[in-house]
Design goal:
Elements lengths: L7 E11 L2 E7 L12 E4 L2 E9 L2 E7 H6 L10 E5 L19 E10 L4 E6 L13 E4 L2 E8 L3 E6 L1 H6 L10 E6 L1 H19 L2
Antiparallel strand pairs: 1-2, 1-6, 2-5, 3-4, 3-6, 4-5, 7-8, 7-12, 8-11, 9-10, 9-12, 10-11
């Protein structure tokens, strides 16, 4: 489990295309400290498994399904990425509960800078809009954020200078894809309420 608090802005150093997959080599001095084979690291919000670790770099295999359902397929050598290690039991939950399981992708629609923050508008897939509410939580490229405005096919987020400086959201431009993970609690509530409605219907 992750919290959506990015630990560092890493870099893709190499991409090897494999049958039905890709192997990424990534540089991240912070997240590779103490890393070992089998560990999990979130890359732009996608939970990946460490295959090899040497120095400040690690490799991870990305399945075709993940490449198709996330923005990782658009990454090349030199791309900057958000990196986060899993949270530990007893640690502070600085963001919100993040699984590293991307629900879909959106696109940066517009950026509106101001003196102390920046409002960013992101497109929202129709099948995810019901999970996004104003002042609720959403993960964008692995960053835990609060929804400012929730529209039928978009949402907006407000980015502080720290987020702009230390994550990919500071460099993404209109037209760029972003990975989205909605709040897992909303999905559980929907399933539970749906099951209850079916049970009540069956007893009529």
């Amino acid at each position: 489990m992750f919290t959506g608090i990015v630990e560092e802005l890493g870099e893709i150093t190499a991409v090897e295309n494999l049958p039905d997959a890709s192997r990424f080599r990534l540089r991240g001095p912070v997240v590779t400290e103490g890393a070992k084979h089998g560990d999990s690291i979130a890359v732009n919000g996608v939970c990946l498994t460490v295959v090899e670790h040497e120095g400040d770099e690690f490799t991870a295999d990305v399945m075709a399904e993940t490449l198709k359902r996330s923005g990782l397929g658009a990454l090349t050598a030199g791309s900057r990425v958000n990196l986060e290690r899993p949270t530990s039991v007893g640690a502070r939950l600085g963001g919100h509960i993040v699984q590293g399981h991307v629900d879909g992708t959106g696109t940066i629609v517009a950026r509106e800078p101001s003196e102390n923050w920046e409002i960013v508008k992101v497109s929202l897939p129709a099948d995810l809009s019901r999970y996004v509410v104003e002042k609720g939580s959403i993960t964008v490229d692995g960053v835990s954020l609060t929804v400012v405005e929730a529209g039928p096919d978009y949402f907006t987020i407000s980015l502080i200078p720290t987020t702009l400086a230390l994550t990919t959201l500071g460099i993404k431009q209109p037209g760029d894809p972003v990975n989205l993970e909605v709040d897992i609690i909303a999905k559980y509530v929907e399933r539970l309420l749906g099951d209850r409605a079916q049970e009540q219907e069956a007893t009529k």
